[in-house]
Amino acid sequence: MTKKAIILLSGGLDSATVLAMMQDHGYAAHALSFSYGQRHSVELDAASKIAAHAGVAEHKVATIDLRLFGGSALTDDIAVPKDRDEASMAEDIPVTYVPARNTIFLSFALAYSEVVGADTIAIGVTALDYSGYPDCRPEYIRAYETMANLATKAGVTGEMPVNIATPLLDMTKAEIIRAGTDLGVDYSLTISCYDPDASGAACGHCDSCMLRRKGFGDAGVADPTRYQPG
Question: Is residue 226 domain-resident?
Fold first, then answer.
């Protein structure tokens, strides 16, 4: 029987790489994306293109509105930080952190996994390249996995314990890009920007763009990102 995995697919570089990795390991990929009121909603178009290009078994988009709570530069009227160096990024949890986002996303993925019979949920968190997000830490992932196996029929009965896979956890952005390139990921389909324009062109100045650009440079791979002028 083919193994199944739920892939949290944002449309960004990391999640596209995770998708390719899980498929390379023989999993049938069920991709899950979210329309959650994010200002960078063009990432959903990217996710659809990535899913189609990868030939996933299924791609679902869940609609929730985290603008109801706000509290983040991605879901509220808060300016996205621009042109910060890595030291500044590492000073504190950035305003682009969306409160409890990964817990919400993983919970949707957990429900989806029970329905389709997937024993793995894959998420593109990384602990090496700075994000500053508390829900990207290894201890959080371990705790969520423990909870997931206490909260589901599949986990409690032992029928199909769930595993939260984090294949990028100990990789730098450059290592991720090299690995994805080797697997044939088309990074021109991805977008990582927190503040793209209406056409989907990346700003080139937010934290995510800065880390992405540096990652391609360090990897020695041409950056296919379409940036805004200036």
Answer: no
Domain count for the chain: 1
Per-position DSSP letters for the chain, written without gaps between them: --EEEEEE--SSHHHHHHHHHHHHTTEEEEEEEEESS-TTTHHHHHHHHHHHHHT-SEEEEEE--GGGT--STTTSS-PPPBS--HHHHTSS--TTPPTTHHHHHHHHHHHHHHHHT-SEEE----SSS----GGGSHHHHHHHHHHHHHHSHHHHSSSS--EEE-TTTT--HHHHHHHHHHTT--GGG----SS--TT--B-S-BHHHHHHHHHHHHHT------BPP-
| Domain housing 177 | 3-219
Convert the pLDDT of each residue in 14-69 to its tens digit: 999 999 999 999 999 999 999 999 988 899 999 999 999 999 999 999 999 999 99
pLDDT digits (tens, 9 = 90+) for 116-130: 999 999 999 997 655
pLDDT for residue 92: 82
pTM for this prediction: 0.95
- Bridging pattern class, strands 3-8 and 27-35: parallel
- pLDDT (0 to 100) of residue 30: 98
Whether 76 shows a pLDDT value over 60: the answer reads yes
Residue 177 CA from chain centroid, whole number? 14
Count of Cβ atoms closer than 10 Å to residue 65 Cβ: 10
